[in-house]
Amino acid sequence: MVENIPASTPRRRGPYSKSDGRRRDILAAATQVFGVNGYRAGSLKEIAGIVGMNPTSLLHYFPTKDALLQAVLDERDKVSDAVASAAAGDPTDPADVPRAFLRIAQNNQDVPGIIGLYTLLAAESATPGHPTREYFVARYQRVREQFRGVFARMEDADLLAPGVTAEYAAASTLGLWDGIQMQWMIDPDSIDVVAHLRRHLSMITVVEL
Amino acid sequence: MVENIPASTPRRRGPYSKSDGRRRDILAAATQVFGVNGYRAGSLKEIAGIVGMNPTSLLHYFPTKDALLQAVLDERDKVSDAVASAAAGDPTDPADVPRAFLRIAQNNQDVPGIIGLYTLLAAESATPGHPTREYFVARYQRVREQFRGVFARMEDADLLAPGVTAEYAAASTLGLWDGIQMQWMIDPDSIDVVAHLRRHLSMITVVEL
């Protein structure tokens, strides 16, 4: 534990914190490579190249490609949760839910590799023997539950459009969001994810967007 | 051209029709393997194994893995168009459009590998150097256009729900359909594609489903 070090003091890193920095660099490179190439086509060699290591040294930090991918997803989930919380603004106000979704969608589109990391890897994870199948099954169950929760709060506050249930709002928003992100990955110049999502949320809620 | 052969007559196939049958067998096996594994993890060895050939002989029919995948997609597009036309029933009645979509969705869910062939390969095609990137860019442009066309006909016939435009109906239906199919691929026991699509079409149109 290092505390209260003035900003101007050069920090001398022990082997532990140097190793930590290395891990972070590797995770950042792997996020980019897996997010763009997917798991199967993403290579340890390319990841190692970005951080200026050889692949064998990289395996000192993450023993297998699977372990590295899982670490990337775990790390991203932490960041995503933080971004989602920050983007959600005042969580006691259900009227802010649609705008929070739009901020998250904008953030996803701005950070390279994020949409690929979830959309591309989710699709790829449906293939036999893929290391993150269970992760994505669990993730979708969790996200479906979260979406149902926030739209239920909107329903309780009479903020859904006439005839729209929380169940439909949740399933349609999650489905449409993923589908549009997939179209965006394939043809980014033709598709505006945020605009599509805004129009959908305008249709299913009574919140002005 | 062989015509009017009684059903009981054994057909003697010349080298050409035998080769044709071989091609069909290979395409069927490749549809299954690419639809379940995607392109990168789908192997020529596995495809050859299903039809009882060695991979080298298979390359006599399709010179590369890329050529074989393209042939699979071209073949499926022919079948899909035929199924879509048949499912569409009377194309002069725009009120039948939502039920036609549901029949296609049901057919997709019933034929193994079809959803994977489009959803999985579409996602995978967004990765660098994937052989079907251009195919999917063009395919999505064509499908978006088709969807806009059929929903425009529904709009003209006053069959869309109040406030729903043909543009929104097309984009939301295509996006949601793809997104739900992706969730289904990952966790088929939790997701019913047809039910999701039926609920969506019930929301955006005034047709009883």
What features would you highlight for this structure?
homodimer, 209 residues, mainly alpha, Tetracycline Repressor, domain 2, 9 helices, 0% strand
Compact summary:
Chains A, B: Residues 20-80 form the HTH tetR-type domain. Two copies of one chain form a homodimer. The first copy, chain A, is mostly helical.
* N-C termini distance of chain A: 46 Å
Q: What is the rounded Rg of chain A?
A: 20 Å
How helical, in percent, are the residues of chain A?
A: over 70%
What shape does the CA trace of chain A take? Answer: elongated
In the CATH classification, which architecture of chain A applies? Orthogonal Bundle
Number of helices of chain A: 9
The average pLDDT value of chain A, as a whole number, equals: 87
Name the beta content range of chain A. under 5%
Counting DSSP E segments of at least 2 residues, the number of strands of chain A comes to 0
CATH fold group of chain A = Tetracycline Repressor, domain 2
| CATH H-level superfamily of chain A | Tetracycline Repressor, domain 2
Order of helices and strands of chain A: HHHHHHHHH
Region (Disordered) (chains A, B): 1-21
Domain HTH tetR-type (chains A, B): 20-80
Organism (chains A, B): Microbacterium halimionae
Keywords (chains A, B): DNA-binding, Repressor, Transcription, Transcription regulation
